[in-house]
């Protein structure tokens, strides 16, 4: 059983997609041990409570230094014996000590087709504003492993979404969530939980039932 920590800063719609997928058995061999938020008012914590999942708030504002916060964050992951950290709209830069300790055990969902509209400054609506300003016809979402860079880790899954005439950043954001993020984040967790993802030469490989790449 893969023990998950899902880290969220806001409403937690991606968290809900994961919870639903575990409850309806679309995701197997995985369990959410804890939901962690840096925001005490995050509705994600209420979602966790509604499903009997432990919720923890760890805010940098509650610590004297960033290093103290980083240590407290890592201590929570160790306490809950987490196997995989899922960043689902978590607006906190992870310390290098964490990405090293949890190498290839942290995944993130990003609302674009990486390497487009990603990296420093691209988060939330800013991603979709960038896509619309550039006039792309196809956008989407990416689930990737997290390394020391920003959106630079090995890509696990991607799902394209068509940009429609008249889209606003808000309508595009919603459609990317519904058609891509809520689908590929649970799928990536299921693949990892069932031993079907392997990282080699900086790339994430998807394995079939026989253990060969697909």
Observed structural traits:
214 residues, alpha/beta, two-stranded antiparallel sheet, 6 helices, 24% strand
Question: Layout of helices and strands, plus pairs?
Answer:
Elements: E1 2-8, H1 13-23, E2 30-37, H2 43-50, E3 54-57, H3 66-79, E4 84-87, H4 96-101, E5 106-110, H5 125-134, E6 138-145, E7 155-162, H6 169-193, E8 197-200, E9 203-206
Parallel strand pairs: 1-2, 1-4, 2-3, 4-5
Antiparallel strand pairs: 5-6, 6-7, 8-9
Helix pairs in contact: 1-6, 5-6
Notes on the protein architecture:
This protein has helices at residues 13-23, 43-50, 66-79, 96-101, 125-134, 169-193, and strands at 2-8, 30-37, 54-57, 84-87, 106-110, 138-145, 155-162, 197-200, 203-206. It has 214 residues and is α/β, with parallel strands linked by helices. Helix 1 (13-23) runs parallel beside helix 6 and helix 5 packs across helix 6 (169-193). The longest helix has 25 residues, at 169-193. The chain is globular.
């Amino acid at each position: 059983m893969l023990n998950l920590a899902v880290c969220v800063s806001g409403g937690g719609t991606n968290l809900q997609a994961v919870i639903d997928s575990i409850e309806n058995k679309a995701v197997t061999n995985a369990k959410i041990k804890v939901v962690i938020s840096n925001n005490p008012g995050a509705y994600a914590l209420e979602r966790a409570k509604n499903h009997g999942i432990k919720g923890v708030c760890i805010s940098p504002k509650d610590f004297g230094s960033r290093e103290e916060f980083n240590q407290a964050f890592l201590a929570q992951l160790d306490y809950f014996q987490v196997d995989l950290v899922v960043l689902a709209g978590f607006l906190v830069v992870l310390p290098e000590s964490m990405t090293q300790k949890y190498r290839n055990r942290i995944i993130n969902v990003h609302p674009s087709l990486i390497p487009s509209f990603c990296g420093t400054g691209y988060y939330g609506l800013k991603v979709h504003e960038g896509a619309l300003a550039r006039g792309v016809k196809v956008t989407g979402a990416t689930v990737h492993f997290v390394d020391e860079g920003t959106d630079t880790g090995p890509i696990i899954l991607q799902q394209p979404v068509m940009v429609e005439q008249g889209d606003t950043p808000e309508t595009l954001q919603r459609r990317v969530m519904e058609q891509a993020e809520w689908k590929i984040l649970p799928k990536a967790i299921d693949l990892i939980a069932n031993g079907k993802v392997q990282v080699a030469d900086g790339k994430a490989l998807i394995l079939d039932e026989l253990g060969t790449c697909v």
